[in-house]
Amino acid sequence: KETDLEKVKELLRTQVNGLDRMTRTVQQLLSLSKAEHAITRTSTFKPVDLNIIVSDATTDIVPESIERQVELDFQAEDTQALVEGDSISLRELTTNLLENAIRYNRPGGTVAINVTNKETIDLIIEDDGIGIPEGERERVFERFYRVTGSDLDITGSGLGLAIVYEIARAHNAEVAISEGADGKGTRVKVIFPKVEIQEDNESRELI
After folding, report:
1. 93: pLDDT strictly greater than 60
2. What's the pTM?
3. Quick check: 25 pLDDT over 70?
4. Helix (H, G, I), strand (E, B) or coil at 205
């Protein structure tokens, strides 16, 4: 019967979605393990342009933002934003922040992504979603912790910000969480030490 066929299709969709979530959780556990040990491998770090990394991560997550009807607004300065680090790990950090900003938002919401180059190199991701209660802002870096009080249908492992914290720590960076503009949403700022390239060292490989 057609109704039975629809039930089978729905069951298969549910199972596929479950497998996708399981796969993502395994990937995040591996990323967390790598991030926790990265601090002992800083000798392999090299100057990388955070503008390029963040731009690529933003482009990759556009399909999810479209699906959830959330607008992405990426702004960066014209100059390179050089930090000492691992490009793959930094891309994972950016992706996790973007995923959170999109998933804890609402249809019609906006995620603003900025990279600034001043005394430090700062990655700032701000959304106008449900926000994080002040009393929970320190706990969101714990493994498997999920923000309470949300009426949104959000899937995830609760590992994303734990990964962000460990990757930032490995790069001698700080992570600060606050309210977004006008007291709405969440603003996450990752503050990286700045890399100064000397004239006699301009030939160093950049990624």
Report:
1. yes
2. 0.74
3. no
4. coil
